[in-house]
UniProtKB/TrEMBL annotation:
Domain YgjP-like metallopeptidase: 32-241
Keyword line: Hydrolase, Protease
GO terms, molecular function: peptidase activity
Highest taxon in the source lineage: Bacteria
Matching PANTHER family: UNCHARACTERIZED PROTEIN YGJP (PTHR30399), UTP PYROPHOSPHATASE (PTHR30399:SF1)
GO BP: any one term: proteolysis
Protein name per its UniProtKB record: Putative zinc protease
Length: 259
């Protein structure tokens, strides 16, 4: 028998084999039904609409216990790999969207902080208290956000202007749960981690957000607009499900959804 026990902040689920996992509940105004998100990095998150009865929510999750158990069976090995990668400073990385390869060199100084800068084409120097691996990762993420601002912003403009699509502003951030979004005021946000994705997937995300300027929903009309600008939208949408795997551990703050 599968049971669900509630704690103060998270919810515990006892699987049929006796294992206990805990999960977070995320309320989404855009969600119409319960959705499970599982990853070795972030564990399990249950996304639900705000009007879903809590007891019904717990029962629905418990009913999926067998499926959940099978999905998380291999997570321990993946978590070990993530932990190992998290303890390392990257020596090189590729930005597939821009066809760029970067080497990273570390320069210890007396500074208590850590910064990253380009000192020659294809090379980034991380300087300061470089024994602090987390600080090195944070410096590289700041560099990534800056580089993405310089490259994704004009990319967005170059697609929008010929298509006659007008947005009010663009913001490039290291978003935790979305590849991109478009607000009711026409402000488009793009995730700097898009630079790790293949070029066609990045272009798909940009078109996706631009089409929200026409339809701020995922109605049939929205998909019609998206397929007009990006004929391969359906296949690209499928590939986006695994796109987060292209992002290295040091850059991670979660993997994305396109809204």
């Amino acid at each position: 028998m599968t049971t669900v026990r509630e704690g103060a902040d998270r919810v515990e689920l006892v699987l049929p084999d006796g294992r206990i996992i805990d999960y977070a509940i995320q309320i989404s105004l855009k969600s119409r039904s319960l959705r499970l998100k599982l990853s070795a990095r972030d564990g399990m998150v249950v996304v639900v609409p705000p009007n879903l009865d809590r007891q019904k929510l717990l029962a629905l999750v418990a009913a999926k216990a067998d499926w959940i158990g099978k999905r998380i069976a291999g997570f321990d090995a993946v978590r070990h790999l993530i932990t190992t990668e998290s303890a390392a400073r990257p020596q090189a990385f590729d930005l597939a969207a821009l066809a760029e390869s970067w080497r990273v060199e570390y320069k210890p100084t007396r500074s208590r902080t850590v910064g990253a800068r380009v000192d020659q084409p294809g090379r980034i120097v991380v300087a300061g208290a470089v024994d602090d691996v987390d600080a090195c990762h944070a410096a590289l993420r700041r560099w990534l956000a800056s580089h993405a601002t310089m490259t994704l912003s004009p990319w967005l403009a170059n697609l929008a202007e010929p298509a006659g699509l007008r947005y009010t502003d663009v913001v490039i951030k290291n978003q935790r749960t979305r590849w991109g979004s478009c607000s009711t005021t026409g402000r488009i946000s793009l995730n700097c981690k898009l630079l790790f994705l293949p070029r066609d997937l990045v272009q798909y995300v940009i078109w996706h957000e631009l089409c929200h300027l026409l339809e701020l929903n995922h109605s049939k009309r929205f998909w019609m607009h998206l397929r007009h600008f990006e004929p391969a939208a359906d296949s690209l949408r499928g590939r986006m499900r695994d796109a987060g795997k292209a992002v290295p551990t040091w850059a991670q703050r979660g993997v994305g959804l396109v809204r």
